[in-house]
Each structure stands twice: as structure tokens, then as C-alpha cells.
Amino acid sequence: MSTAGDLLLLTTDPTSGKSRIGSMESDAVLGGAMLYDLVELGRLALEGEDRKARVAVADRAPVPDPALEAAFARVRDRKPAKAPNIVTRLGKHGRKNLYNALAAEGSVRARDEKLLGVFPLTRHDILAGVRRDDLLRRIRASLLQEQPPDEETGPLIGLLSAGNLVKLVVDKPDRKRAKKRAAEIAEGDWASESVRAAIRAANAAMTAAIAASAAAASGS
């Protein structure tokens, strides 16, 4: 499963089947996760660091994961661009495509409902509960019990931190401590420099894209 898929699985409410990532932040958050995945797969490369990073296409070969391929297709033929712009493009329709990919692999099941008995919407029941619970346990152990993160949980913690989503994985009394620890992990030495660079670029791009989205919403 991709890091982006794990992030969506982790932030889907197991009772309601609703994504807990706000609609305004969804494209930026999931786009940041997909940027990380595509850098790790060698399809995209970073030029520069953090907020100054630009993203270039390194390999135009198709990606086996359908959600990542749909995202990559939107930037495959573009010239190097600022990371926030790439994140916004990668995240377009990201939630829908990632849920479709999760459903295809049997991790979630789509369920149609009507809001107020009128407006159609789709919820996603979690089938990969063991996977989700294991990720949640390991993330909480890193945030609250000083357990070192690993190659799966480290990127997820960094993305949760950048998207201000740490509150979704810990109880309210632990949130302040967990947010501080998540920020430390995002900058820590648990991963290789290339992985840290990918996480930093994704996080900076997410933060900038979320801020831009919020500014646009407040000005409209």
C-alpha cells in the first residue's frame, strides 16, 4: 500500500466511514503524500530543499498503483515547478482515486448514503482494520512512548504533522505533547537523507498549499 493510501486509511473514521481530512485541506494533504510516494518511486525528483524545492520529472514510466498513476499523469509532461504547485495538481481528485484504489485491493468497501435523505454521498467501511490498527498503535507508540519511527510510520507522522492532523490519532489530553513529538520526528535522523528531503519537501508544499487554500476561501 502507498503512503498516501495508508494516510487515507488511517484518517477514515472506522464507525462512520467518513474521511476526517477536511475538504479544504484534502487535496493538499493527499497531494503531499503522493509527492512523497512518487519521489520514493523515482518518478519525481527534488531540486533544492524545503520551501525552495522544485519538482522535476525523473522517470515517465507508468506507476503500478492506479491512484498514484492518475496523479502522476497530471504532471508527467510538465517542466520543473515549485513543490506547492505540484502538490495541488497531484492531489486533485486524490481522495476519490485513493478510495477507489483501496476498494480495489479490498481495504475498504464503498457504501452509498443520502445526507438528510436527499443528497447522495459515499462512505467507506474499513475492511483492513488490522492494518489500520497496527499503524495507529505504532504511530502512537512513537508519539507518546518514544518508540523510534520506522519506514512506514515515519513518513506518516511527518505528513500528519504538516497537515495538522496529529489530533486525529491521539486522545485530546495527549495532543500538545504528540504534536511537539511529531514535529521532532519529521526533522529527525531516523531515515536516510533522501527520505528526509522528500518528507520535508512534501510537508513544506502541503503547508503552503493549505495556507493558499485557506486564504482563497477567506477572500471569496
Residue runs with pLDDT of under 50 for 5 or more positions: none
Major pleated sheet: 3 strands, antiparallel
- Within the CATH hierarchy, at the fold level, what is the topology of the domain at 3-128 and 192-214? yeast vps74-n-term truncation variant fold
CATH superfamily of the domain at 3-128 and 192-214: yeast vps74-n-term truncation variant domain like
CATH class of the domain at 3-128 and 192-214: Mainly Alpha
Sum up the overall morphology in one term.
globular
The CATH architecture of the domain at 3-128 and 192-214 can be given as Orthogonal Bundle
Secondary-structure-based class equals mainly alpha
What share of residues is helical? 40-55%
Mean pLDDT value = 90
What percent of residues are in strands? Answer: 5-15%
Topology pattern, helix = H, strand = E? HHEEHEHHEEHHHH
Total beta strand runs:
5
**Strand line-up in the sheet with most strands:** 1-2-3
Give the terminus-to-terminus CA distance: 38 Å
Number of helices: 9
Radius of gyration: 17 Å
Keyword list:
three-stranded antiparallel beta sheet; globular; yeast vps74-n-term truncation variant fold; mainly alpha; 220 residues; single chain; 9 helices
